[in-house]
Write a structure and sequence with these properties.
287 residues, alpha+beta, eight-stranded antiparallel sheet, 9 helices, globular
């Protein structure tokens, strides 16, 4: 990879974010970058659903974002880390995990976590949850509020064989807790988990089609054919998408995911998979 190619990728990445001049590293700049990332680059598993999961190399992720694609946490936080480092930010990667149980102390390795030190303060920076905080949170114990969403950060005590870390608590999120260790990690630490998450029939990424994006007021969430809008000020609304035309319109407009890489056969296969899962879901939820 030549320096010129990398520079072109980062420039295109910034254009996708709508940021012409990110400036020197600053707290304000970091916050603006995260907000733009969450608004313009959705969490999506389109390629996983089509059986062609992209690798998690950060340079590849950055190129995909520049071309209008999304990804899940290893892609989103991995590419964002590369962007921030290129812009001069001090970034650390950590092994983390999302937890369905609010009191879990497990880490697991299913999530790539970023912390960034700027202006003398360390921040938890998150572009990979889809419905996480709109802005970075200080890496400091306490309760936080953003647009009606309540969050908390607390210290995570060490388990046997693992060092201390942090827990992010989000009662309104799709997973109530994210745990991660203080120790730094590299992309290689996530390769095995990525293979399982993106290929195993037991993986939630393989079982369920999903896109998520965050903005200042709330989050848009598409799971299967069910499109939800979550806003603390207004509550949650949801509707079922009627057919493939509406599905791909929502993917391309609301979630901003370019569709030029999807052939007619890809679209037909994705709709068939989504609709089949939706039908099965309905069968288990009927009274």
């Amino acid at each position: 990879m030549t320096t010129g190619t990398h520079t072109d990728t980062i420039a295109a990445y910034l254009r996708r974010l709508g940021i012409a001049d990110p400036g020197a590293p600053s707290v304000e700049g970091l916050f603006a970058l995260q907000r733009a990332h969450l608004e313009r680059i959705s969490y999506d598993n389109v390629d996983v659903q089509l059986g062609r999961p992209p690798a998690i190399d950060p340079e590849l992720s950055a190129r995909r974002f520049a071309a209008g694609r999304g990804g899940y946490c290893f892609h989103l936080n991995g590419g964002f880390a590369l962007l921030l480092e290129t812009l001069g930010y001090e970034v650390t990667r950590h092994v983390g995990g999302v937890c369905a149980e609010a009191d879990s102390r497990e880490v697991g390795g299913g999530h790539l976590v970023l912390t960034v030190r700027v202006g003398g303060t360390a921040y938890w920076v998150e572009a990979g949850l889809g419905d996480g905080p709109y802005e970075p949170l200080p890496l400091r114990e306490g309760a936080y509020e953003q647009s009606g969403f309540g969050y908390a950060m607390e210290r995570l005590e060490p388990l046997e064989g693992e060092g201390p870390g942090w827990s992010f608590l989000t009662p309104a999120g799709h997973m109530p807790r994210v745990n991660f260790r203080d120790a730094p990690a590299t992309t290689a630490d996530f390769e095995a988990m990525h293979t399982w998450l993106s290929t195993s029939e037991d993986s939630p990424f393989v079982r369920t089609f999903a896109l998520l994006r965050r903005d200042a007021e709330g989050a848009d969430i598409l799971r299967g054919r069910v499109l939800s809008r979550v806003e603390p000020a207004k509550g949650t609304t949801e509707r079922v998408l009627d057919g493939p035309e509406e599905l791909f319109e929502v993917i391309g407009t609301l979630f901003g995911r370019a569709l030029d890489d999807l052939t007619p056969a890809d679209r037909a296969a994705l709709w068939a998979r989504v609709n089949r899962a939706h039908t099965a879901w309905l069968a288990t939820h009927r009274r």
